[in-house]
Write a structure and sequence with these properties.
Layout lengths: L1 E6 L4 E6 L7 E6 L6 E6 L10 H6 L2 H9 L10 E6 L16 H14 L3 E4 L22 H29 L3 E5 L2 H12 L7 H4 L2 H4 L2 E3 L5 E3 L2 E4 L9 H9 L2 E4 L5 E8 L2 E8 L19 E8 L5 E8 L3 E4 L2 E4 L2
The protein binds fe (ii) ion (FE2) (2 copies).
Length: 333
């Protein structure tokens, strides 16, 4: 019996040639996150090797992948680094409620150059989208579309200008994987598009997500980096939302929406899970707050993901335009 192991761009694999059993060959493979895996035996009546039984019997992708990855020398295991960007609330110059903080923006862009991540995910509230907000029309009738259109297009230009800048930074850094999980402010655009029967005014279309080649996740859905789930946030609210999130999901999750930094860990019988709220990058003085102090702070996430899906989180705090990453002081320009 001979065993051959290797890896290519998409999967780790193991081929086992079983002599003496009709010359049968069995192959097992899984991707690095353990999300796709399969086992093929030829002929299919061939007995499953003990080493793969867990995966085959349970039909578990992870079991197959973990078994195989366990035998791959560490030097051959490919890990990934991601930058996770929280609420930016990009808005046109002069916006009363919205806008990205320019110093936080500068630190984020420098982080892309330093980290050169494999992937970048924006976890929603990309734009403020004040023009599409239903809140401004609670005591007034919303004007006709012809009046609204120029206001919305001003927001569209501001948001796309910023996304273009990020795309250019990511191109230079060689970052090929890009995702966004829709925020509740993007939903304002979706609602406007539905009410006006103009699907081209939905957030995904307005931000040209498809043309940019970004992966899109609807509001409330979860993207995934290894075993870490990512979403905009808001499923679990109130005091100690990180603790509620990790308990409620029984899984690890990184999210934004609350604009504050908070984390919690729990040990379940199924393993250790964590939840991280990673602050925001938006301006923190808002008219609607009426001068009320908040717990908001500027931050973003760096996530290192190992080939078996295990991950390590760094929440990078930005205070007064200064952050530290990989031991290096980074100051807003
Ligand atoms: Fe937000
Ligand atoms: Fe939000």
């Amino acid at each position: 019996m001979s065993i051959e192991r290797g890896r290519d761009d998409e999967r780790v694999w193991q081929r086992e040639d079983v002599s003496g059993v009709d010359g049968s060959v069995c192959e097992g493979w899984g991707d690095e996150r353990g999300e796709r895996a399969d086992t093929v035996c030829v002929p299919d009546v061939w007995p499953v090797p003990d080493v793969w039984k867990g995966g085959v019997v349970w039909g578990s992708a992870l079991a197959v992948s973990d078994t195989i990855l366990g035998d791959v020398p560490e030097s051959e295991v490919k890990s990934e680094t991601w930058i996770v960007c929280p609420d930016t609330h990009v808005a046109p110059v002069g916006s009363v409620e919205g806008g990205i903080d320019p110093r936080a923006d500068s630190v984020l862009k420098q982080a892309i150059r330093i980290v050169r991540p494999d992937g970048f995910v924006h976890i929603g509230d990309v734009g403020e989208w004040e023009s599409a907000s239903h809140w401004q029309w609670t005591k007034r009738k919303r004007p006709p579309f012809e009046f609204m259109k120029p206001l919305i297009m001003a927001d569209v230009r501001a948001v796309n200008k910023w996304l273009d800048e990020i795309d250019r930074e990511l191109d230079k850094a060689g970052t090929t994987k890009r995702m966004v999980t829709e925020g509740n402010h993007e939903v304002w655009c979706d609602n406007f598009a539905i009410e006006e029967a103009r699907p081209e005014f939905g957030a995904k279309a307005l931000m040209r997500i498809k043309e940019r080649g970004w992966e899109w996740h609807e509001h409330g859905e979860f993207a995934k980096i290894g075993k870490l789930n990512l979403t905009h946030g808001g499923h679990f609210t109130g005091l100690h939302h990180a603790y509620k999130t990790v308990l409620g999901l029984s899984a690890s999750c990184m999210y934004g929406h609350f604009h504050n930094v908070e984390s919690a860990h729990v040990m379940h019988l199924g393993g250790a899970h964590g939840a991280w709220a990673i602050g925001c990058l938006c301006k923190m003085r808002k008219k609607f707050l009426g001068g009320k102090p908040t717990s908001w702070s500027h931050a973003f996430g760096i996530v290192h993901v190992e080939a078996n899906g295990q991950f390590h989180v760094e929440v990078v705090d930005i205070f007064d335009g200064v952050a530290y990453m990989y031991g290096r002081r980074v100051e807003a320009k």
